[in-house]
Amino acid sequence: MIKAIAGYSVGELSSLYMAGCISFENMMKIVRVRADVMQHASNAHNTGMLTIQGIPKEKIQELCHELNSLQTDSKNHVNIAIEMYPMSTVIGGTVKILDGIVERGHPLLKEPSIKLSRLPVSGAFHTPYMESAQEGLNDILHKIEINTAPLENPDFKVYSNVTGKPFKSTDNIRDLLVKQICEPVKWTNIIQDVNLMFKEKKLDSILELGPGNNLQSILGKINRRAIRVTQSLDLNS
After folding, report:
1. What SS3 class is residue 144?
2. Which segments of the chain does DSSP mark as H helices, in order?
3. Could you tell me if residue 218 is inside a domain?
4. Which of 204, 226, 225 is closest to 215 using CA atoms?
5. What is the per-residue pLDDT across 16-46, written as a single tens digit (0 to 9) for each?
């Protein structure tokens, strides 16, 4: 029996489909519109994303605030985009600011153990740079039906990227999906909750759907024992 479903970024829509909250046809409609409006928002700014490993999220938040306070152009800023796992955070912002961070001019980034990695993406997703995409996404979401009945089961969890907690049947799922493209993905919270379910023996196996084994790798950084019960299934192979 499936006890919990979590989807990363656009994968959140897949999790809602698997849970029975939206139909496959409607999921694909949302995915198409979401991709179009987010790409359009990306084209308006020269932005990107950067992974920082080896620093607590709180320190990275302080770094973002400090760098933003130094900017004279309000359109030039950087924000946390994804809380991946403890000591690994993705930020998104203008290429100008990200270039400065990569040069390691800030004292916080001097330690050789800190790893910086640019992501091969064309925008600063899950940050305020996606605000112009929210209207189009909101429009399509209000044209499709969302079934919240599966969320009424207390023994079944479907996680929200925005809150890092399971959706509730009383949640406004449309609003949370719209917020998701502009707010940080709280993947750390989700993974920690999944790990807690595993430790409490509420889960006996974990299945990762999609290419690669990123979930397995992240779980392993929190609990090495979880790797033994995690199976990665590449649907493209």
Report:
1. coil
2. 11-19, 24-43, 57-69, 95-102, 134-141, 173-180, 187-199, 214-222
3. no
4. 226
5. 999 999 999 999 999 999 999 999 999 999 9
Could you list the residue range(s) of the whole structural domain that residue 171 is in? Answer: 4-40+131-180
**H or E element that contains 231:** strand 230-233
DSSP string, 63-118: HHHHHHHT-SSTT--EEEEEEEETTEEEEEEEHHHHHHHHTT-SGGG--TT-EEEE
CATH number of 114's domain:
3.30.70.250
- Identify whether the C-beta of residue 203 lies closer than 8 Å to the C-beta of residue 197: yes
Q: What is the pLDDT of residue 205?
A: 77
Domain membership flag for residue 110: yes
Residues 139 and 166 in one domain: yes
Within a domain: 69: yes
* Token duo for residue 132: 């112009």
Cα 40 from Cα 197, distance rounded (Å):
39
Q: And the tokens for 145? A: 């039906």
| Residue 208 in this model has a pLDDT that exceeds 80 | no
Tokens representing residue 126 in the block = 């899950």
First to last CA, the chain: 25
In this structure, the number of other CB atoms found within 10 A of the CB of residue 77 comes to 21
Euclidean distance between CA atoms 125 and 47, whole angstroms = 9
Give the strands of the sheet with 88-94, arranged side by side.
78-85, 88-94, 47-53, 115-118
Q: Are residues 60 and 82 in the same domain?
A: yes
As for how many domains the chain has, the answer is 2
**This prediction's pTM:** 0.90
Three-state DSSP at 210 gives coil
